[in-house]
Specification:
single chain; alpha+beta; Multidrug efflux transporter AcrB transmembrane fold; Alpha-Beta Plaits
Amino acid sequence: MHSIITFFVHNKVAANLLMVLILAAGFFTLPTIPAEFLPSYEMNIISIKAPYRGATPEEVEEHVVAKIEEQIQGINGIDKITSVSSEGFAAINVEINSGFNVRQVLGDIKERVDAITDFPELLDEIRITVAERKLEVLGVVVSGKLQERELQQLGKRIRDEILMLPDVSQATLGAIRPAEFSIEVSEQTLRQYRLSFQKIAKEINNNSLSMPAGSMKTDKGEVLLRTFGQSYSREDFARIPILKRDDGSFVLLGEIADIKDGFEEEQLEATFNGHQSVIIDVFRLGDQSAIEISERVKNYITESKSFLPPGVKLSVWRDRAKIVKGRISTLTSNAIQGAVLVFVLLTLFLRLSVAAWVCAGIPISFLGALAMMPALGVTINISSLFAFILVLGIVVDDAIVTGENIYHHLTLHNDPEKAAIEGTYEVGVPVTFGVLTTVIAFLPLLSIEGRRGQMFESIALVVIPVLLFSLVESKCILPFHLKHLKIANPDEGKQSALQRLQTAIDSKLQCFIDNSYKPTLAVLLEHRYSTLCGFIGLFIIMMAMTAGGQIRFVFFPKVESESIQATLTMPVGTPYAVTKKHTDRMARIAKELQTEFVDPDSGQQFMTNILVINGKEDSLGHPQSNVGYLRISLLPPEQRNLSWTGHQVVTEWRKRVGSIPGAEKIYFKSDIFHGMTRPVEIQLHGDDFKTLSLAAQSTRTLLEQIPGLYDIEDTFEIGKEEVQIKLKPEAELLGLSVIDLSRQIRQGFYGEEVQVLQRQGEDIQVLLRYPLEQRKSMLNLNRMKIRTDSG
């Protein structure tokens, strides 16, 4: 170590070149580091999704989930399998152990699932993929007084234009009902023309298709042949011949059916500050920067105001990049404040030049760490920025000790170069081990497995390089610059005001050391065993306070978000109007709070925008009549002149909403990490769902009686009421089977998927079924005619 220190003290070029290289590497690397809200991480989860439309949760569990789980059990690398069986859909998540190749396990799972031969006939294609975490940057709300179709078309146009912006690769349109093409034929019409759904579907497929017909080799070359007759519009389908009359004319589909080119029947309505709206979510991929994407989208919004229809407005929503920029601003501010405080304190005790070069270690260490971040796979996010703020207070410790000791040696023999070498070398070992022990303290964060571990990993991968670069700076760069120090003039009459202040403070400090610190230290050293026992006792008291709850422990701290939200979940099958009534009441209470949380002096509103979604979509984008969602954006912290917090608003909101009759869940959220961990989480295991349901209900009832607990929920959902239909013995004499009965009832009430149209980049189902009026009651079911092979 002595030779390294001596080399850099004697070699001006080496010390300055090292400093410039570190600074330049950091400056040039900084613009290339992606900025995002939360750190990217590998999910190590394989997602299996199986749509089974019209099936009950029990049928999905028995005929789909159980078969898949049984088949993939035992595949090497699988850690845990979790599944959710809901109406018409199965979702299975397979967690993979760390150290295994996820793609290889994916191939093994696909092979096992493909080997299952007894899936239900009506099961749609099973999708097996590696789960990907969507990295949302911001949302764009399109709101205004337009019809649903017009608003969707405008939203799609704006989405497509946003996708054409540089650096934007993914944007989706949400809060919309999926398009659906419906062909509705009444029972009376079927009987009048002696038709069945199966015959109508056959004629539609025979007359609405486009397919290749080979090629024709001409003298000028080969020409492809293709028959074209695919229907895309109501008019196209209406002209399809279904039945030939005795006079040779045809009964067209438009004569016997009500053809609708519209949306799914499940209702969904999104309002933004009271106006109809759709939401465009913009995401980042790979190494794209959230801040750059956010700026481009916001510039587009500003420029697009000129071509928007009257009464239509584009609003920025959930701008995650703004939070990242806020954390960067906080880091910069804290770094400046910390550097100023360190500089001032050091200036009071040491020379001005010592304080300046010690503070110079902060940007050198930080930029050195920034230069390493891409190689370590770390991005600019709230975790890495927190790490920079965390390490700010300890990054100059080694430089302070080294700088003070160099100055001390200078006062002993008044030889700056020798003082720089000997002063650095004397404290080299303890300073090095001091830094390394801090590094070791952060190393365990790299060994935490799972998604939480990947979040904490970025903290360690920032703190450790910063500390190591600070060690390099204190051993190789700082000594060279401090070798130019000169000892202060002892003649008080010629001292400056700063030097006189330093002398006075040094005198007071020396007096405290001589009269208080040294006598106390002597007593403690004399009674060293008693001192040791005293500190052990303090340690035991701290541990007892932690175990007893006096010192609380939370895995994720409460970090207030810039928005608050609430989700209402009613029992599955609840009519849309009932859910909407409760959600609208919650929205009215939110608007009341919006008028109350206002700065009386400036009139500034704390709650800025209110988004309400009635019938919020599920993971496949289908509306759920039993779910209502509200989200309220709050004034950004840097713009507030108020002392209110989102937690205060949520507490008052929850209090005024109270309990909602029949609600399964009412869930409020006010901080960023809310929901990532739960203070209390109870898992019940068993083979019988009825027993588990009763146990879950009993547990929930007990928890609701404990003061201070709120947002209590369970994952067990009561499904819709069910009508079970069985075939009578005499039906077999007519040649009817269970599959005939099932198919015809499904065709009439759920619908026969005749075709899937490709239109404007989306798949649109074409469903053949009864009109809605004939699908509403048991009377309709009882009056339904079941057709035999003879008609």
